[in-house]
Amino acid sequence: MSDEARIDKWLWAARIFKTRSIAADAIKNGRVTIGGMNVKPSRMVKVGEVVSVRKPPVTYSFKLLKAIEQRVGAKLLPEIYENVTPRDQYELLEMNRISGFIDRQRGTGRPTKKDRRALDDFVGPALEGYVDFDFDDEDDDD
Q1: Which of 98, 88, 77, 90 is nearest to 15 (CA)?
Q2: Cβ(2)–Cβ(24) under 8 Å?
Q3: d(CA 74, CA 80)
Q4: Containing H/E element for 52?
């Protein structure tokens, strides 16, 4: 076992990301930092370094205990890294869960009741007289 590993492989092997390509994309998009600096997927990490991973709304921090490049079982994760994420980040995550759709960006997800009423008011007058559901005009030859 070596004392260093590629950051993209380590993030995948430590089960922080589901696939190595997702880990590499996160690194390229600046969501992974080491010592406050953005890194490249090929950056070698060493035991003792702290890796920060931003998965909105939380930034997780992990201290490397082992530099691995092969995926391990979930039971072995305490030997691979130590979670040093500050408590306030977990409080932020809990507040986000509780708030639900309060911080939802306009136009994303399901429309709220207010959005739906506004849509009905906007579309309603345009559709009046467009479809005739009056079936009394049919010939009845009974």
Answers
A1: 77
A2: no
A3: 10
A4: strand 50-55
Higher pLDDT, 74 or 141: 74
45 by DSSP, 3-state: which?
strand
Q: Give the Cα separation of 46 and 128 in Å (integer).
A: 69
Are 82 and 62 contacting, i.e. CB atoms less than 8 angstroms apart? yes
Res 97: pLDDT: 73
Beta strand 37-38 with 44-46 is unpaired
Q: Which residue has the tokens 């039971």?
A: 75
Q: In terms of residues, how long is the chain?
A: 142
Q: List pLDDT tens digits, range 90-142.
A: 888 787 777 655 555 666 777 788 888 887 887 766 666 555 555 655 565 55
